[in-house]
UniProtKB/TrEMBL annotation:
This is Uncharacterized protein. It comes from freshwater metagenome.
Length: 185
């Protein structure tokens, strides 16, 4: 009975601003819940770089306000934005959690390294090989400290590093291991 009354009244009434914001969000994003119980938005197209729902800077709330203003030629109220975000969080709470990684992800026998740039590309490293891929199968989260990595080039040689630092030859493997492990800690 209640469902029928709600659906009948909704069919005759204009959607609220919060409803329109939810519609806009679902056109371009999927709101997820991480294993840490954070709620983030993943773009449905383009790089899978998540963004926070609220806060300062590049957030889902900012995108929704901008899109609503561009579409409707007016700003949504703060309350409508908050209500929309709360509904999106509620919906994401009912879904499975998603693993989100910062900079590195080890999946199977490979490692994915987020290049940290606007392309969303990652380096896929497997035993003895690496390649830059456009759409990594993992979701990366970035922080204010995530700066772009330089693009790797084939044919690199660590011996050049050891020619400028004073390390005994028998210790080079240890130093190289330390440098690599520093990326993963």
């Amino acid at each position: 009975m209640l469902d029928k009354n709600i659906s009948e009244s909704h069919e005759t009434s204009k959607p609220s601003v919060a409803d329109e914001l939810i519609f806009l969000a679902n056109l371009e994003y999927e709101v997820i819940r991480t294993h840490e119980n954070d709620f983030l938005a993943i773009p449905l197209s383009g790089p899978k770089i998540v963004k926070p729902l609220l806060g300062m800077g590049n957030t889902l709330a900012d995108d929704l306000m901008r899109k609503y203003r561009d579409t409707c030629r007016k700003l949504p109220s703060e309350r409508a934005v908050r209500d929309a975000i709360r509904v999106l969080i509620s919906e994401a709470s009912a879904k499975n959690q998603v693993q989100v990684y910062i900079r590195f992800a080890q999946i199977g026998n490979g490692i994915f390294v987020d290049l940290g740039d606007e392309t969303g590309q990652a380096i896929h490293i497997t035993r003895g090989t690496w390649e830059i891929i456009d759409n990594p199968p993992v979701v990366f989260r970035r922080t204010a400290l995530t700066a772009p990595f330089p693009r790797p080039k084939a044919g690199g040689d660590f011996s050049k590093l050891f020619s400028i630092i004073n390390i005994p030859k028998e210790q080079e493997g240890l130093v190289l291991g330390f440098i690599i492990s520093a990326y993963f800690e």
